[in-house]
Write a structure and sequence with these properties.
The chain is α/β, with parallel strands linked by helices and about 475 residues long. Helix content is about 50%, strand content about 10%. It starts with 13 loop residues before the first helix and ends in a 7-residue tail after the last helix.
Length: about 475
Amino acid sequence: MKEFMGKDFLLTTVIAVDLYENYAKDMPIIDYHCHLNPQEILENKKFKNITEAWLYGDHYKWRVMRANGIPEQYVTGDASDYDKFMAWARTVPMIIGNPLYNWTHLELQRFFGIYDVFNETSAPAIWDKVNAQLTGEGFGARDLITKSNVTVVCTTDDPADSLEYHKQIQQLKDFNVSVLPSFRPDKGLEITREGYLPWISRLSETMGSSITTYDELLLALESRVRFFHAIGGRVSDHAIDTMMHEESTLEEAADVFAKALKGEAISLTDEKKYKTYTLTFLGKLYSELDWTMQLHINALRNNNTRMFNQLGPDTGYDSMNDNEISKPLVKLLDGLDKEGCLPKTILYSLNPKDNIVLAGIIGSFQGGGVAGKMQFGTAWWFNDNKDGMLEQMKVLSNLGVFSQFIGMLTDSRSFLSYTRHEYFRRLVCRLIGEWVEEGEVPNDPEFLGGLVKGICYDNAKQYFNFPNVVS
């Protein structure tokens, strides 16, 4: 029996241990998709206690706390931070098998040197030990990033954002991490949603002139993409909850935009035309600038109307969607490819039924001398667990080129989430070690070690070609 969360955690073979200890363990991290707050990075935010660092804004934890019968008062309500912490301590022992159980212990071990099993009995002492460190020197937001050996952080930013904090971070003399913006124009594509017109007004304010035509909107989007590029941005990110495609002319898309400005009803066909033309326009721009386009597909958001009205979005009431994605996605990619404008692209689906679909689709659009130009993105959100990660990697290896995989990201709002890279890297080594053990792959540590280092870091560094990366 192995030691709980010990040195060989998740590693099932001798070769896996060797690959992790000698090749994966000390590799830097490129976090090419996260939801960290750039202002908090700039200010090296200090956390008043572990609850603020651990539980504020973490809807992963909120979901399981509710499922464990914790009243909302101790989840997002007005209970004290200590009482919320103790509610989490009551929950953690009940979620064995959930990655949050292991992540919780990894974070205690790696950041705070605490190897106790976390439960209601050990929690009071852990509260004191962790808080003593958090409120001392060396545990601000930037410090935690540096401790995690991160070289690049890509935040998630609206086209209307000023990126002022990114510019100030780049002027810091004692922080060698590239904190770069990601272009997230979801509000500009969701033309039927309530927030669309307020977003147009906000973008107009950023541009310094009113946006009254579709041509003006496209010019504004292009201007903001180029502005992001000047700050160092090299990736876009799109939440495509429902994959749509409908051939459209510029004039047709402009007519839909005009309807929206007048407050007129937008049909489903209109919505498809507007989204297709706008996303295609952006895809061509990304290709021109050698950006990478990320498509996060098939989330079903804000399922609980009562709780959405009470707490708003991103509070733990989302799930997987099961819409068809293959035909509209292929049409989008093919349309860009026919014009020689298909950018490097990473495809993710929240529904694991789509894994083999996405892995097959990327194979239809590889080429151009770019290794792994089309990427089947790492297991995302509800799939961000042992089984989900292994399944994603197995599907990719069965249908594609596993050795060109760009690996893990945090997709997190927490500065403590970088231990998820360790969790992922252990699983990469586990999978390869099992292939060796079964005689499917030669026991060549030097070759396999290079492959592991590529998946952990080197592939992403080459793929994104971010400016000014120190490693």
